[in-house]
Amino acid sequence: MSIKFPEGFLWGGATAANQFEGAYNEDGKGLSTQDIAPKGVMGALTDEPTEDNMKLIGIDFYHRYKEDIKLFAEMGFKVFRLSIAWSRIFPNGDDKEPNEKGLQFYDNVFDELAKYGIEPLVTISHYETPLALAKNYDGWVNRKLIGFFENYVRTIFNRYKDKVKYWLTFNEINSATHFPYMSAGIWTPKEQLNKQDLYQAMHHELVASALAVKIGHEINPKFKIGCMILGVPNYPLTPKPSDVLKAMEADRENLFFGDVHVRGEYPRYMNRFFKENNIEIKMEPGDKEILKNTVDFVSFSYYMSSCASADPEKNIKGKGNLIGGVPNPYLKASDWGWQIDPEGLRYMLNLFYDRYQKPLFIVENGLGAVDELITDENGNKTVNDDYRINYLNDHLVQVGEAIEDGVEVMGYTTWGCIDLVSASTAELKKRYGFIYVDRHDDGSGTLERYKKKSFYWYKEVIATNGAHLKK
């Protein structure tokens, strides 16, 4: 049986401003939390931006967006996921007036995408809170950020209301419980941050997200606005009932965020979690009403699955599992220790759809690997990345299976469709793209773009609407 994807399926690729734009201090842009984090999510911060921070230049999309979008169009992209750098629009986050040059840049990008018939899918906040909001307000711990975010959201919704249809509020909103600085701009060091402040910050983000949905639908009722969840299914390590319950609890830590976005209220199971962790969410008047502005679709990233065990001796986090989880003895791992589980994507799609009955959008999935640039028999520089083709093929086959299961899937955007700086490790040698960018972790390179073997493979997948995939 051949794999069938629905008509109008949105094939494309995904990026984030702080990982590929560069131009970190050009045309009025302010500093973001990423500009002083040269080593990624686990690394120490610096006082000022430093030359070893690969994100400051990224791959220079800021100056090369026409060239890159032309390559995306050549692959046949129907959609391109990008984020707006908040500090490019409001340099300090709390500014009264926006930075016109920043707004104009995204106008130019959206116009270029429109030229090729590519729909933008825009993440409003993707791991780069304006640095001033982190330093002066402690990020989302402070309720004032809701107002600053509202000002930002109204500005971009009004500006791009005729150019952008698909929006995401916060990238991987559930990741803030693991990476509070990167995800929520919280200046207090993680080891000093108590759970009360952390979940209060999450409440502020959830209110802000729902407020964005409300505002967006008022400005343009045709907007489709989704949430974005870091999707990691948790399997019980054994059939032991305590392991099954542990997996349920681990899943709920992530599902909680989707539940609020889709159902418009806090799920009852959180009452016990809050009670046992001495958390009391401060709800302001009107918060419960705002939360009722639910999303139009649910988007998520998927890279790996993990296991859960109630046995303290077995509950040892895998080296590549950024958000915890026990390694699965049945799975292989990538060079960075991320366990490869295509069937987990089918499981995740069914889990979300059974729970929410909302359209789903896979907005990140891909393989980070060390690529070798070679010269082929025709004298062209390329990368023979069959390992990436195999990874993506196997995951997309499972997406097809989920669609056959009855799951409503809107689209699929591979992560890092053009090589960019990794979020987890802030290195460029961990490459995801269909397009090789000649830049290296020592800062060398020409920034020239080269098509990998996977470029032509993905082009064929899109052209055949998935029929090119091999089961």
Task: Explain what the structure shows.
This protein has helices spanning 17-20, 61-75, 86-89, 100-115, 131-137, 144-159, 180-184, 195-219, 241-263, 269-276, 287-291, 342-356, 386-404, 453-463; strands spanning 10-14, 79-83, 119-125, 166-170, 224-231, 234-236, 297-302, 306-308, 360-364, 374-375, 381-382, 409-415, 435-437, 449-451. It is 37% helix and 14% strand. It has a single domain (10-463), classed as TIM Barrel (Alpha-Beta Barrel). By secondary structure, it is an alpha/beta fold. It is built from 14 helices and 14 strands. The strands form 4 sheets. An 8-stranded parallel beta barrel has the order 1-2-3-4-5-7-9-12, surrounded by 5 helices. Strands 6-8 form a two-stranded parallel sheet. Helix 2 (61-75) runs parallel beside helix 4 (100-115). A hairpin with a 5-residue loop joins strand 10 (374-375) and strand 11 (381-382).
The tally of helices reads: 14
Number of domains: 1
For the biggest sheet, the summary is: 8 strands, parallel, barrel
- State the fourth-level CATH superfamily: Glycosidases
Fraction of residues in β-strands: 5-15%
Shape: globular
The CATH architecture: Alpha-Beta Barrel
Structural class: alpha/beta
Radius of gyration: 21 Å
Active site: 364
EC number: 3.2.1.-
Keywords: Glycosidase, Hydrolase
GO molecular function: hydrolase activity, acting on glycosyl bonds
